[in-house]
Amino acid sequence: MRHFAATACIDWSGQAVARPKGLAVAIARADGPPALIEPESGWTRGGIFDWLRSLAKAKADIVIGLDLSPTFPFLDTGAYFPGWSESPADPRALWALVERIAADDPHMSANSFVDHPEASRYFRRHGGREGDRFGGGIGRLREVERHQRATGQANSWSCFNLVGAGQVGKSSLTGMRMLHALDGAIPFWPCDPVPDEGPLLIEIYTSLAARAAGLGKGRSKVRDAGGLRMALTALGSPDCPPLARYDDHATDALITAAWLREAVQMQGLWSPQGMSARVAQLEGWTFGIR
């Protein structure tokens, strides 16, 4: 198993503005406390894209967790968008489709895709608008989402749901635009194998790190120095220097970067039982789900 010199977490956002409040980046090296990386003017999605490109160019020895879904469900119906002639065949074709439709949306947002006459049929949107192909109930789920709900490891929402505080669909769509722009410059596990050198992207779910840090269900968010100190101590990490802010985006990123430092060394997390080759290639997998 490859040993990485550093781990990082990107708390992503689907907010359609230049500088989304939900963007945060933290890095944890082999020892010492995790630390936020913060540009003076704050993060933009384009700024994070540039940072990732710089890691690729430098062949940085780092694994980066992205808090978003890189794909939609496929295996439940045999297509990402069953019944739509333009439904793509694999994740990279999906990213290209989102980019083509949302290309004119600023800040790597994706409102044009959500409002597209065909694509909108698959989403639950604000204002009680539920597409006729949403699927009902909680919506369609990827195999990893079905597995984690069945085993109680997590309680992810459908990526086709765009309503509510727990929705991840908007973040996933904006993330797909960034992944398309990266154009394979950094491999994305498990769609791509772990490279012998250079950076690697993985999908993460920050609630897994919170649970490992002893934060129980219903109180997974940390918004103060004492809570962050306790979470990092539970993960065997030194405490951070005082932060300018203790919002849950910054603390999610710090806790997850610290958790990943140990988690990426666990061989079993790279070969979960429920992740077949077909699942890996078409839907991906959330790192840490066994």
Alpha carbon gap, first and last residue: 17 Å
**Structure summary, number of beta strands:** 7
Q: Which sheet architecture does the biggest sheet show? A: 5 strands, mixed
Q: What ranges have pLDDT less than 50 throughout 5 or more consecutive residues?
A: none
The secondary structure category is alpha/beta
DSSP strand content? 5-15%
Helix content: 25-40%
Outline the structure in words.
The chain is an alpha/beta fold. It is built from nine helices and seven strands, in the order βββαβααββααβαααα. It has two domains: 6-68 and 183-270; 91-181, no CATH class. The strands form two sheets. A five-stranded mixed sheet has the order 3-2-1-4-7. It has a two-stranded antiparallel ribbon with strand order 5-6. β2 and β3 form a beta hairpin.
